Amino acid sequence: MKLKNPIVIVCFAISSCSAPRTILESGKVTPHKQIKAGIDFSANFATQPIKALKGSSSEIIESLANKDSIVFDDALNKLNIVALAYSLDPLGSGFNMYARYGLFKKMDIGYKFASGTHVFDSRYQFMGPTSTGEDTASGKKYGSIGLQFSSQSYDLPLGLDKLQGILGLEFKRKDFLVPLIFSYSFGKEENYGAISYGLVYSHSFVSYSFDPQKIYEAAGPSGISVNKTLIKPINEKKNFPAFGTFTNIRFGYKYVYGLLSFSMYYQNYGTFNLLGGNTVKFNGFSFVPSAGLYFIIPPKKIFKKQK
Fold first, then answer.
1. CB of 288 closer than 8 Å to CB of 265
2. Which among 295, 219, 218, 227 has a CA at the least distance from the CA of 257?
3. Which of 118, 123, 204, 280 could in theory staple to 146 by disulfide, Cβ–Cβ 3.0 to 4.6 A?
4. Which of 148, 137, 66 is nearest to 100 (CA)?
5. Residue 25 to residues 17, 92, 134, 274: CA-CA distances in angstroms?
6. Residue extents of the structural domains in the chain
7. Hey, what CATH class is 27-306 in?
8. Which SS3 state, helix, strand or coil, does residue 221 take?
9. What is the pLDDT of residues 274-288, one digit of tens each?
């Protein structure tokens, strides 16, 4: 049975968390002692969970949640695949807040609160000047490389949360992301913004477990359990890489800028163990659009010059 309205699950997924993979920065790092802060709205559209959700039924999930005991069968195996596929790369969107600080002349650090996930990163600039744009130095081309870390525990969103309870699913992940960023300045020292592009490598480390308390192994050709043997739980750890590319454009003047970004990733998640001794292979693309604003808080010496 298919969903009467497949849009329902997508709408419920609006608040779900995905690995933070939006690239908002240019090749120029935050100048020494300067602070940047911003907010953006980003989304994550992944092909793998969309394929897994096809043909799934919220009505079946509802009926299973109301049962005291469940016999494992093909339908439940498909729901097992849905839960894991969605956890690995959930459909979702949300607001993100971030701040950056110029730690040294060619290095900055950043923090982002991305839809409930804490994200930390640092970047090193290897090409182009690092002044504030108010100085006499000028530059057009920039390049930097960064390292980002995030960690989160994940719950399925409303609409699939009952499935998580049925399967006894727990899911945690840690993500490392390395962006190589190049940019071209609009005006001197990105005074009017910049266009940026580059490549991204990320690596995810996930741990997941299924420990259902009311799913029983099937016995006999009829598929009806006789001995009431609980299905064996699963506790696994996996890791997989992802490769991506991105582009973003910022536009504004001096202290206030708008920003549009788009990233695309491909990942081969690998083979995962499921309940009942089954396995599944996942791979697919993820598309991450974003739009927002960011603000520059310049060093005190700039304000002194304006007096």
1. yes
2. 295
3. 123
4. 148
5. 21, 22, 20, 39
6. 27-306
7. mainly beta
8. coil
9. 998 899 999 999 999
